[in-house]
């Protein structure tokens, strides 16, 4: 499956909006969050959650079976940093204009683009 960086960003925003110190997210492939399910199909959401986990953007990730239940406790510190920069639509649009489709590359260049953006304001 091709990586959709907008899906990554949307998942991280959803996790940030729906977790607290006492509240984890439980996602079941049969009942995906409406905010995500309206934009992406089930396989796309699950795939991108797995990519977020493998890239160290989320904490407390547990998958209980191949297609079903997923538990996420929060964003990792790296996930919070990524989202702090990616939340700004001007910065995000610059990332997208670069045409980069590698998550490790996006993770590494996003802070530099954000720094440049804010220094030029």
Task: Offer a concise description of the structure.
The protein is mainly α. It contains 6 helices and 5 strands.
Structure write-up:
The chain is mainly alpha-helical. The chain has one domain: Arc Repressor Mutant, subunit A (Orthogonal Bundle). Helices cover about 55% and strands about 10% of the residues. It is built from six helices and five strands; from the N terminus they run αβααββββααα. The strands form two sheets. Strands 1-4-3 form a three-stranded antiparallel β-sheet, with no helix packed on it. A hairpin with a 6-residue loop joins strand 3 and strand 4. Helix 5 crosses helix 6. The longest helix is centred in the last third of the chain and has 17 residues.
- Strand arrangement, major sheet: 1-4-3
Largest sheet: 3 strands, antiparallel
Question: Radius of gyration, Cα only, in angstroms?
Answer: 14 Å
**Regions with little confidence, pLDDT below 50 for 5+ residues:** none
Provide the β-strand percentage band. 5-15%
What oligomeric arrangement do these chains adopt? single chain
Give the termini separation.
37 Å
Helix content: 55-70%
Name the shape in a single word.
globular
CATH hierarchy, class: Mainly Alpha
The number of helices is 6
DSSP, total strands: 5
The secondary-structure class comes to: mainly alpha
Helix and strand pattern: HEHHEEEEHHH
Mean of all residue-level pLDDT scores: 89
- The total tally of domains equals 1
Annotated CATH architecture: Orthogonal Bundle
In the CATH scheme, what's the topology name?
A: Arc Repressor Mutant, subunit A
């Amino acid at each position: 499956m091709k990586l959709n960086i907008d899906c990554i960003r949307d998942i991280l925003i959803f996790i940030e909006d729906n977790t607290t110190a006492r509240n984890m997210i439980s996602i079941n492939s049969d009942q995906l969050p409406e905010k995500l399910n309206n934009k992406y199909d089930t396989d796309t959401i699950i795939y991108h959650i797995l990519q977020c986990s493998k890239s160290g953007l989320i904490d407390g990730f547990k998958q209980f079976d191949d297609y079903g239940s997923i538990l996420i406790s929060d964003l990792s510190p790296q996930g919070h940093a990524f989202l702090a920069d990616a939340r700004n639509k001007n910065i995000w649009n610059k990332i997208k204009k670069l045409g980069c489709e590698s998550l490790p590359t996006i993770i590494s260049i996003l802070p530099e683009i954000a720094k440049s953006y804010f220094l030029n304001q």
